[in-house]
Amino acid sequence: MNALSNSWNHPKTSAAGVLIAVVTIARVLGQQGVTLGAAGDGTVVTLVSAIATALLGLLARDPEGQSTSTGSTAKLGAWALISLLLPLPFVGGCSGVTVAQDIVNWTPALQSAVLTVDSTAALLAPQDAPIFAAATVGFDAASNLLVAQAKAYLANPAASTLAQMQTQVVTFQQQVNVALLQAAKIADSGSEQHALAAIQAVATIVSAIFALVQSISSRTQVERMAAQSTIKLAAVRPYLDGSQAERIVAGHYGEPVALAKIQIAQAEYAEAQAGF
Q1: What are 42's strand-pairing partners?
Q2: How far apart are CA 5 and CA 257, in angstroms?
Q3: How far, in Å, CA of 84 to CA of 79, rounded?
Q4: Cα atoms in the Cβ-side hemisphere of radius 13 Å centred on 204
């Protein structure tokens, strides 16, 4: 009776507990290769996990969580803990086809960010514009090639097309890292701020795509990618604006910024552990 009364008195907490259990069980089944049948491009297990995750996200949007009371602060901490249990949108161990589609879904945001980079030079001081232009000159070609390879992998999820995508995402990430380091050398503070903000938008999207590719790569493949990454995350981290990245990821996946923050931290941790 106590269990029933607690469930009745605390329906949201009880619902969250059930959903967490569903997600946890689904992840275990997925790791054991249990699918329970096909569901579209995925499996019944991944579909159930995704639905449970979405419902947890809706619960996390509870307006009561906006209060500054002690109880609401505890709720926020609880939701942060719950978020740590969820599979990330871009490192959730999905199938290669699902990852390729997610990369393609990032296309509009990536192209928009690159266009912003192209127009940013006009906002900089005359002596700074050439530095910025030289640092970002390869962004257009790199983004177009990455999107094309994602579409090719989506059409033909073979080892050869995956290898091409792995090489290109590392190449693009390294270009972005070089650009960040070059932009940080701009003397004029206003120019530096504009330059870093424009490059950061591209960096955030490339990092999300990088995490997606990493999630479907074998340990040997990840080690090879890490060996190709000469400029590590730690070198550019001081020039990255975490709040900007959180807004971009939250907007893309339609989730709370607090959840995006945790997901980005997890993705960065996974990259650092892998040697990036």
Answers
A1: 39
A2: 34
A3: 9
A4: 29
Q: What are phi and psi of 255, to 5 degrees?
A: -130, 165
Residues forming beta bridges with residue 43, ordered by sequence position: 38
State the DSSP H helix or E strand holding residue 249, giving kind and residue range, or none if neither. Answer: helix 242-253
Pairwise CA distance, residues 15 & 132, whole Å: 51
Q: Quick one: how far is CA 195 from the chain centroid?
A: 22
pTM above 0.70, yes or no: no
Q: How many residues can be counted in the chain?
A: 276
Per DSSP, the three-state class of 158 is coil
CA distance 106 to 40: 21
Coil, strand, or helix at residue 126? coil
pLDDT in tens, 124-168: 999 999 999 999 999 999 999 998 988 898 898 888 999 999 999
Measured distance CA(165)–CA(158) in Å, rounded: 11
Residues 6-25: tens digit of each pLDDT: 445 555 555 655 555 565 55
